[in-house]
Automatic annotation (TrEMBL):
Residues 1-19 form the signal peptide. This is Secretory protein. It comes from Heterodera trifolii. Keywords: Signal. It comes from the Eukaryota.
Length: 173
C-alpha cells in the first residue's frame, strides 16, 4: 500500500507542475504583477484627449521598462525577454500594419501587452479574491487602452506570444 502511494504522489506532482502556467521570470507572477500594480487606473481614468493619452502612454511605458529592468532577480533574464519580445512584435507589426509618425500606437500596444501579461500572471498565481480582483483590474486597463485606441482612431496591437524559453514555474506570493 505504501509503495503504491509513493508511486502515485510523483505522478500527481508531475501533472500539477506541468499544468501550471510558465513565465520567463522566476517567480514570474510576482515580478510582473508587482510592477504593473502601480499602473492600475492609469488608462481607465485617462482623458480622451489624444496628446494627453499619448503622453501618458509614453511616460507609463518608460516607467514600466525601467521598473521591470531594475527588478532583477530572474536568473534566466526574464525581464529582458519580456521587454524584447513585446518590443520586437510591436515593431514588426507596426511596419506591416501601422503607418504612424509618433510612438503613441507602440506605447499603447506595449502597455496593453503588459496589462494582459499581468492579468494572466495574477489569474494563475491564485484563485482567491485578492488575485482575481487584481486580474480584473489589469483586464480593465487593457480594455480601456483598446477603447481609447478606438475612440481616438489609434491602432492598438495585441501582443500575446510571450517568450517561452528558460522558464520557471509561477509561484504564488
Amino acid at each position: 500500500m505504501s509503495s503504491l502511494l509513493l508511486s502515485f504522489f510523483p505522478m500527481v506532482f508531475l501533472i500539477c507542475c506541468n499544468a501550471m502556467p510558465k513565465f520567463p521570470c522566476c517567480p514570474g507572477s510576482q515580478q510582473v504583477v508587482a510592477v504593473m500594480s502601480k499602473y492600475i487606473d492609469t488608462f481607465s481614468s485617462a482623458d480622451a484627449d489624444k496628446s494627453t493619452v499619448c503622453s501618458t502612454a509614453k511616460n507609463t511605458v518608460d516607467r514600466i521598462k525601467s521598473d521591470l529592468s531594475s527588478r532583477g532577480g530572474c536568473p534566466s533574464g526574464g525581464e529582458a525577454q519580456i521587454l524584447d519580445e513585446i518590443d520586437r512584435q510591436l515593431k514588426n507589426i507596426a511596419k506591416m500594419e501601422i503607418n504612424y509618425e509618433d510612438e503613441c500606437p507602440y506605447n499603447l500596444g506595449f502597455a496593453g501587452a503588459m496589462f494582459d501579461l499581468a492579468a494572466a500572471a495574477a489569474g494563475h498565481a491564485g484563485t482567491d479574491t485578492k488575485w482575481q480582483n487584481m486580474k480584473g483590474q489589469f483586464e480593465q486597463e487593457s480594455h480601456a487602452i483598446k477603447a481609447i485606441g478606438q475612440e481616438l482612431n489609434i491602432t492598438v496591437t495585441d501582443v500575446h506570444d510571450f517568450p517561452r524559453t528558460k522558464m520557471c514555474q509561477v509561484q504564488a506570493m
